[in-house]
Design goal:
Elements (H helix, E strand, L loop, with lengths): L1 H15 L10 E6 L4 H13 L4 E3 L2 H11 L3 E7 L3 E8 L9 E4 L4 H11 L20 H4 L45 E19 L5 E20 L3 E11 L2 E3 L5 E3 L1 E15 L2 E15 L9 E17 L2 E12 L4 H6 L2 E16 L4 E18 L2 E20 L1
Parallel strand pairs: 1-2, 1-3
Antiparallel strand pairs: 3-4, 4-5, 6-7, 6-17, 7-8, 8-11, 9-10, 11-12, 12-13, 13-14, 14-15, 15-16, 16-17
Helix pairs in contact: 2-4
Length: 404
């Protein structure tokens, strides 16, 4: 009888106190910024391993999703060119704690540790965090505040759990602060690089009488200068210049003469970030000049062309990216080739370039570039059309500095 009574008592208590519902989303994760994909994946993995339920959302919808899912808080991870700023907000979107900031160069793992510290699920790394106390530089500041005791007011100080797990003396929750000015996305940025490389040139023409003209310049050195200005990390204006060093033309076995190759390009365009990929379009003017001593067999070629282009960039990590660019060229002239073979011309070209870019957090810029440019020519004179092709292969290594 006693056992039956105990069973009835347990059954009654279970009816009076129904089982607690499974928790919904614990954190709504908002990740913003160029190249933020790797940081988003690492931070989310860390939160889920810590036992938190995570829902990703854009900033404009974060508060609504947090309310619908019953989330405890909103974690905003903002990736800039130099730093990763993490902010913890209440479920209604109001600021809750002082933000933390880690250098972007330390990678996604540092952002993961900072996110866990901000949510009270781990100890912060003092060396990785912003040294500004207002940004939560020490582990205790970054730890989550304990709930206030029943009956206390919001203005009363709360106890804080340290990274060792013990409770320290009560203190006030730090007032929310904005991220340092250096962490905001720059309105304008500028990169400049100089370097050197090597280039070849192959030129062929077929005259109306069936005779051919061919020229091949062996590998020659090239000086390079590139510069780019960006606005809001979307619009850009870019300029490039190159000049040969020590180029010679061999007219026959015993006759050599100095030659000069010059190239320049100016273009403007915009990039669309689709993390971790960027797609860009641009339009500009390109100029290539192969200057040689005048000779009817091989006159100077001078191509001034309109150049629309498209590009795609893949960012592997915060400091390393690969670009591929395809440009079309509609030449407005061909230099001395016109005076020899005919002014009625059709000259079109294509160029393909690949660049491996290294961008260090302190401003260093290094680019390894390889490309090919080819023009197709048809010059129509009194004797008939002369057709040919002018092709150039290049490789270059450039280094410089970027601001900011």
């Amino acid at each position: 009888m006693r056992a039956a009574g105990l069973a009835l008592a347990l059954l009654a208590s279970s009816v009076a106190c129904p089982a607690r519902a499974q928790p919904g989303t614990s954190v709504v994760l908002v990740v913003e910024g160029r190249g933020a994909g790797a940081f988003a994946r690492e931070v989310r993995a860390g939160l889920e391993e810590a036992g938190l339920r995570v829902a990703a959302a854009p900033r404009a919808e974060a508060a609504a999703i947090a309310a619908a899912e019953g989330a405890e808080s909103i974690l905003v991870v903002r990736v800039t060119s130099r730093r990763v700023v993490l902010s913890r907000l209440a479920a209604d979107g109001a600021a809750r704690d002082a933000p933390l900031s880690v250098p972007r160069a330390r990678g996604p793992a540092a952002a993961r540790r900072a996110a866990l510290a901000l949510l009270g699920r781990g100890a912060a790394d003092p060396e990785a965090l912003d040294p500004d106390p207002g940004a939560g530089s020490d582990a205790e500041t970054s730890a989550e505040a304990e709930p206030s005791a029943p009956g206390s007011t919001a203005s009363q100080p709360s106890a804080v759990r340290s990274s060792r797990g013990d409770v320290t003396a009560p203190r006030a929750t730090p007032a929310p602060t904005t991220a340092p000015a250096s962490d905001t996305a720059p309105i304008a940025a500028f990169d400049a690089t100089v370097g050197g490389g090597a280039r070849t040139r192959s030129f062929t023409l077929l005259r109306p009488d069936g005779r051919g003209v061919a020229y091949h310049a062996p590998l020659f050195a090239e000086l390079r200068v590139d510069a780019e200005a960006r606005l809001l990390d979307v619009a850009f204006v870019r300029g490039r210049f190159g000049s040969s060093l020590g180029l010679e033309t061999r007219l026959d076995e015993s006759n050599r003469a100095d030659a000069l190759y010059l190239r320049a390009a100016v273009e403007a365009g915009a990039r669309l970030p689709l993390d971790p990929v960027q797609i860009g379009v641009s339009f500009g003017v390109a100029w290539d000049r192969f200057e040689q001593p005048f000779d009817e067999r091989l006159p100077t070629a001078d191509y001034l062309a309109l150049r629309p282009a498209a590009s795609v960039a893949i960012r592997f990590v915060s400091w390393l990216a690969l670009d591929a660019e395809l440009g079309a060229r509609v030449a407005l002239g061909a230099g001395d080739l016109e005076s020899v073979y005919g002014v009625d011309r059709s000259v079109y070209g294509l160029d393909v370039t690949a660049r491996l870019r290294l961008e260090a957090d302190f401003g260093l810029r290094v680019t390894l570039e390889a490309g090919v440019t080819r023009y197709w020519l048809e010059l129509r004179g009194p004797a008939g059309p002369t057709r040919g092709a002018d092709e150039s292969l290049s490789v270059a290594l450039l280094a410089g500095y970027g601001l900011p």
